[in-house]
Amino acid sequence: MAPRPYQIVVYGATGFTGQLVAQYLSTIEAVAGKWAVAGRNKAKVEERMNEVGVKAPVIVADASDHESLVQMCKQTKLVISLVGPYTTYGEPLVAAAAENGTHYVDLTGETPFVAHMVRKYARTAISTNALIIHACGYDSVPSDLTTFLAVQRLKGLIGESGKVGPVRSAFSFKGEVSGGTISSALTIMDGSADDKKIGMNPYALSPIAGSYKPLPTVVTSSTFAGKRTWGSFWIMGPYNSQIVRRSWGILETSDPSSKVLSYGSEFNYNEFMSMKGPISAFLASFSLLLSFAVLALFPPARWALRKWGPQPGTGPSKEMQETGWFKVVTTAKSVDGKHEAQMIMKGKGDPGYAATAKMITECALSIVLDYDRLPPLAKQGGPLTPATALGTVLVERLENTGHFSFSAGEGKKSEMAASSERAPLIGSAKPDMGSYTPAHPDLASLDVYSAIHRVFRDIRQWVDVPLSDEQMRSPEIQFAIIQPLEASFAEMNDPSIVYVLLLVRLQFLRERDSTLASSSLNETRAHLCELLAIKLLRHQATIEKGGNAGLLAMARALVGGLHAFQGAKEDVLERIRQSEGYASRVIAEGAGKTNALELAILGRARLFIKSQATQRVITAIWEGKIVYSSSSFINILPDRWKIQQINIYSVKDAPILDHYRLRVPKYRSMIDTGSFLVLFISFIAVIVDHHKRADNLPVDALSLHEKWFFFYGLGYSLDKLASVTEHGWSVYASGLTNGLDLMTVPIIALSFVFRIHSVWTNQEWASEQGFAILSCAACLLFPRLAFAAVSNNVLILSLRAMLADFFYLMAIAVFCFLGFVFALNHLCDGAYSISRISEWLIFIWFGLDGTGLEKSPKFHPYLGPGLITVYAALSNTLLVSLLVSILSTTYSQIAADAAAEDMFRKAVLTFEGVKSDSLFDYFPPLNLLALCIMWPISHVTSPRWFHKINVATCRLLSMPILLLIALYERQSSPNSPIRAWFSDLRVRMTQALPSRWTQKLSLLEGEPRLLCEAVFEYTPSGDEKEDSDEDDEPLSEDEVEDAIDPEAQRRNNCGRASRILAAPTRNISGAGTPVPPSLTTPSGATLPSGSPAPSLPPTRPTSPPTAAARPSKPTPISPSPSKQAVRFDSSPPSPSTLRPKPRSSHHQHPERLPSNASSGGYGTITRTRSPDRLNFDNSALSTSPHPPAPSAPARFESPLAKLYQFHEMDGSGSSVPNAGGVGGLKRRLSLGHQARAQTMSTAGTSGSWGAGGSAAGPGGEQMKELMNMVAELQNSLKRMEKRLEEKEGKEREGDRDD
After folding, report:
1. For the range 1030-1035, what are the long-range contacts, defined as Cβ-Cβ under 8 Å and sequence gap of 24 or more?
2. How far apart are CA 395 and CA 149, in angstroms?
3. Is the keyword Cell membrane assigned to this protein (predicted)?
4. Distance from the CA of 84 to the CA of which of 326, 866, 1052, 1153 falls in 20 to 30 A?
5. Are 573 and 588 in contact (CB under 8 A)?
6. What is the pLDDT of residues 589-632, one digit of tens each?
7. How many CA atoms within 13 Å lie on the side-chain side of 662?
């Protein structure tokens, strides 16, 4: 073979891409002087090269002249074909290159062309060792290379036994669509039916067909390391996917030396254009597919696009070429879903021109300069793909240019977040996570899925019989079931436990409704979950120091965003994706998050919502003290650039114009009320104006009142529809007035349609119908106004539930009574219409008219009157009675606990008030403008820039309201300047008035209510009270210090119910058992170290304590060498050591006892995690510095305490706990396999407490005393019964004598 003078020839150098390729080749020293350009017109080619400053030999070749193409191919090793459309001009050059052993690369994106070239010239190219490589530009080098690298990386992770499964590529870019790409697409549409069929076949280019049948991409997504990327239809996706599947087919059918790189039989590929969320993905897909449908179905549309659209050979400006970029993220996952790998390719420059020119040039250079390093398949020649022919050689060359980079995804913070900050104002941005945003760091790492199944299993195991409310409150259940479960779940130290319990409760409620046989049991389990959720929500505050920290911890547990499958293994998610479809896949992968408050609302957990801890968090959120960004599945105008984590709001650190304050529920409620009032007034104005000008009002024009009303009404309707999509229909329907608001929307819309129709057609009937429909809105607007005015009234609260029951019963009744309509219509044999029969039945139903009874014989002499009579009895008697009964029951249930219902409605209003959609930052009707202007801007700007534009616009339009909110919040504190100024002004004005006027003014202000409020405002210490709930806050740092100080504890423990019910214990020097922190003698002196705890005499006070016995100020005893004060074993614990620590399964924890059982030194009851055993510890005894009050029995006096404590005497005469652990609370209910019968037997113990037993020491004496008390009680009852019997006998004898 004669030597060839050139290594590369650029064919089609006069085009825009050809010039870029020539420019780039001129910078490669390795081929300097060894390349040439070619074209039909030599002068034109030279002119174009001079314009771009390139000097290269020119070869004349024409696609219509086969001989010229052959001569060109014989002069070079490789030809770069840039002449398109390739279906029209490309085949002659492919044939010439294959025949002459010349390597060939092109930029084609036409599937039929590639398929025909493979079929016609594959054997010829293989025989001459000529490489034929199509799609060497932006389509399809990034797709092919990243898939090849991701699959090889995944195979290294899964080994030989694993199989490669789904592979997905996400494209994002900034650039222009090239005229050549558009021309290729139009050529395919103009092609024959066979060509169109080839283009639609996913395996048209592959040597073998796969089992995967891809569906049209509308809305799709891909996940890696738990992060989701949403995507839409990608214009280059079908062709790129066919090239990638060709690579798969080539490797699957190759020889063993190349088959080691194969992707496997389970491989399936698809790609998409990354979008911000599912809504934007759907809209983008819809617009692209609609455009393609128009072009495919209407040839004139294709003609117009060819004439006025981007032309082949033209391209973007130099500035656009330099600022453009692209990014491809390819994720490969194993079949079992346990392993995943990701490859990211980034490129600088406009993808369709600058980057494409470099990619095809490097493909050519890889062949001519690195031929020896190419894979074995390349040495055989033939039609291959960039990945199978060039592989890692091309990857190295692209990286060495400095314009491309390849990296592996590590599952860390997405690199897209960093690139989006560098993204320019116009262009596509990083793939967004849609509505699934990272949760709080403490919440994102929680294994919610495992916790759900653990809690569900434990509740089912521990509770296997129904329990009544009284039994649930009984001490046995409290100490045997509820507290052990509480301790077990508290050991998890999991903030999601409240969410988990409420979710499990919903499951038990579903099982209750679906399985009637076990409905009572599941009701008990659901109630237990609610009780535990209340306790564990309070527990969140106890593990934090300080009031705000505790409140924040409870808020994080209550409103922190979680999803039920968080922490689930990949095989679980893959199982859901394969079996349940798109909706369940979105839920499983966390696109839609919920929180504990939402679950409580959905499950109607009124007991949980009315609890003090929940109300504290709800109140803080309502007032804006706690701020956070809610999570929703659908956002119409999403702005997720800056996510507000759950935090305490600080007025000092917040800006004056803080647009996030518009989402505070309190302010949002005021704004919604104001919006409704504007709508109501506008409605009244339209109706009144129509009546005034009914004769003169033109039909074909809208009045000024109508224009404003419909403009505002449509904005109001958009606000309500956005509220439904924000948190879903279930939550929205729980609102008090939301139903009325939503029913108003179709009335306004329908009236608007009729009026627009009348204006368009000048038809008076349409105008009259529009006003008639609009007038019906008064039936909804006036009740809505009443609900807004008196929303907390019990009648209003019950009216909503009663209306729901009424409509539900009416719907059932109408459905049932349709049978009578059907029967009567058949009996009359067409004599009366169905509407007339229905009218008669309705009149009978409501007792308005008896025409139906009169006409009944005409239906049938006997059956007609019978049916009508039965219907009248059922509808007018039975149904009305049933309706009254149901409505009365509903009202009584709500009225019985109206406070809980009111709290539930407030919880719904609070949860609804925290919005995530930035559309709510614009009030009606400005939200219509935001939808029309800001929504398109959000799709052409990066998230960072859209956030800036959105915030600036919102602050500008809402400036008056934001200023009022800022002024209110900054001047609402007691020491604010404005409040101080008003106080001074009031004092000066009062002093300036005459004395007789001042006295009258004081009398007017001195009503009892104001006086009662003022006496608590001005405290003895001089500090004005600011927060009525201060005592309910968790421990602050000062209170923690007080907890360490014994003297402070003595002061705080006096009369504080929470301290009496659950007093903490400590270790005393020389004692091995815990004792209460305040161990003092009745005189107030502290006990010496090592002294045993004293026992109170087992006597019962029979009279109130004397003055000498009354509490007096304790006098501390100074320490002496013989008597030392009580000391801790070590230095006093720091505040951090007072925080509850995780309890292991073998540790014991103190149980709460009633005040008359635990105060006064009864000791502590401890329980292990086993539900079968109660351990009684009475060694921790103490005396109180104050003698017991008459209502508080002394030690071992309370019968309840004696049921808990039974002491015996050991050999040394000390009181020890009874080894048998007997007592009333030792009896267990039968709760399944974990319950064990506890018998009250004393066999084998060292003492006895029966009637015939004897025991020495105080413990035995006390047991005897208890039994004596019981015996006395029994004797008293017997005597009373005997007297009653004697009295009754005398009465009977007297009756007989009479």
Report:
1. 1032/612, 1032/616, 1033/547, 1033/550, 1033/551, 1034/541, 1034/542, 1034/544, 1034/545, 1034/546, 1034/547, 1034/549, 1034/550, 1034/551, 1035/545, 1035/546, 1035/547, 1035/550, 1035/1138
2. 9
3. no
4. 326
5. yes
6. 444 678 899 899 888 898 999 998 999 999 999 988 898 887 76
7. 22
Distance CA 452, CA 498 (A): 10
Q: Which of 18-32, 191-205, 794-808 has the lowest mean pLDDT?
A: 794-808
Q: Would the pLDDT of 853 be above 60?
A: yes
Q: Tens digit of pLDDT for each residue in 211-265?
A: 888 877 788 888 888 788 889 988 888 999 999 999 999 999 888 778 888 898 8
What does the block give as tokens for 170? Answer: 């996400």
For 810-879, the three-class secondary structure string (H helix, E strand, C coil) is: HHHHHHHHHHHHHHHHHHHCCCCCHHHHHHHHHHHHCCCCCHHHHHHHHHCCCHHHHHHHHHHHHHHHHH
State the maximum Cα–Cα separation within the chain, in Å, rounded to a whole number. 151
- Does residue 74 carry a pLDDT above 90? yes
Preceding amide of 85 cis, omega within 30: yes
- pTM of the complete model beyond 0.85: no
Angle, helices 193-200 vs 111-127, to 10°: value is 80
CA separation for the pair 533, 382 (Å, rounded): 69
CA nearest neighbour of 524 among 514, 513, 533, 512: 512
Q: How many CB atoms lie within 10 A of CB 510?
A: 13
| pLDDT tens for each residue of 857-904 | 888 888 888 888 888 888 877 777 888 888 888 888 777 777 787 888
Cα 1010 to the chain's mean position, in Å?
45
DSSP annotation of 921: G
Choose the weakest-confidence range: 256-260, 1200-1204, 1267-1271. Answer: 1200-1204
Q: How far apart are CA 317 and CA 869, in angstroms?
A: 87
Please choose, from the candidates 987, 1131, 1150, the residue with its C-alpha nearest in 3D space to the C-alpha of residue 1063: 1150
Helix 612-623 vs helix 547-559: angle between axes, to the nearest 10 degrees? 90
CA distance 778 to 784: 9
Two tokens at 1235? 């319950």
Kindly report the average pLDDT of the chain as a whole number.
75
Q: Alpha-carbon distance 384 to 381, whole Å?
A: 8
DSSP single-letter state for residue 95: H
Q: Which residues pair with 594 in a beta bridge?
A: 562
Q: Quick check: 9 and 79 in contact, CB under 8 A?
A: yes
| Locus of tokens 């005499």 | 1097
The phi, psi pair for 1099, rounded to 5°, reads -105, 155
Does pLDDT of 1132 surpass 80? no
Question: Residue type for 949, please?
Answer: I
Phi first, then psi, for residue 359 (nearest 5°) are: -65, -45
H helices of 201-236, where? Answer: none
Rounded CA-CA distance 1203/556 in Å is 41
- Distance from C-alpha of 1197 to C-alpha of 1098, rounded to nearest angstrom: 7
User: Is 1240 in contact with 1232 (CB distance < 8 Å)?
Assistant: no
- Give the dihedral sign, CA 76/79/82/87: positive
Residues 1150, 1164: Cα–Cα separation, whole Å: 6
What's the confidence (pLDDT) of residue 137? 93
